[in-house]
Every structure is written in structure tokens, then in C-alpha cells.
Amino acid sequence: MDNKEIQNLIKFVAKSGVAEVKIKDGDFAIQIKNVQEQIAVSSIMPQNFQSPPQSPPVPASALVSDAVTNAPKEKEAEKEANLLEIKSPMIGTFYRKPSPDKDVFVKVGDSVKVGDTVCVIEAMKLFNEIEAEASGKIVKVLVDDATPVEYDQPLFLVEPV
Question: Per residue in 96-113, pLDDT tens?
Fold first, then answer.
């Protein structure tokens, strides 16, 4: 039995939902178990059977470079954990400006105080002003202008002061 036949057998067992398959042919024996959507394969191969070539080991320098590139992501995630979210109190359409010809209420880097208007949400032809729930600096705008938002959807990230 070659590798392609074994792979086809594994796929068949996975799709069929069979719990276990055992095949024995002379010196060759294979047992495939389908356990909770995972397939375990064990086989006994004759002495003259050669295993496929193994891929070369990954150099340690590659592992170190992966760790270095993941470090900024971890710092960013840790920084975002300290941020507060201004969330939508309703379903509607998010607008960053009071009207198309006006400037945005807030942009990244602006400081806000509790009660400052940060955007409006249109619901049933009514424009509802959304106010900052915390004082701090706007770090990120999470929603594009004139897009629908859901109840409790994060709109802004605020770095508390």
C-alpha cells in the first residue's frame, strides 16, 4: 500500500463517519481510528518499507526571528487591553460628522471628556448624538462613516487619562 492509497483511505474514513478501520495484508497492517473529528493512524510496516523523506529541520534562527516578529503584536494586544471602548447604544447608521459639509466630531489623537459628542447614529430618521463615556484620547475609529452598526458594537477605542 503506497502513501496515496493510505491518504485516500484516511479521507474515506473521515467522510464516512466510520469509527475504526483495520487492514492487514501480509507483513503490512494499518489501523485508522476516527476519534472526535480527529483521525489517528497507526501502522506496522515490513522491514523493507522505506518511509518518505523527512523535511529538513527548521533552523533555530528562524524560530528566534518568529519570536521577535510576534513581540510587537503581543505589545499591541497588551496596549489595546488597557483601552476603553465607546459602544453603540442602538442599531442604526454611524456618522462621524453632524452633516456632510461639517468636520468630523472627533479624529484619532483628539482628547475627549465624558459627555463630549463623538458621533451620531441615525435610527428611523432620527439623529442621535453619541457621547463619550470616559475621558481620554481617541486612539482608533473602528467603524467607517455612513455604515450600519449593531447594538453594543465598539465604535471608538479611547486611551483613558
Answer: 999 999 999 999 999 999
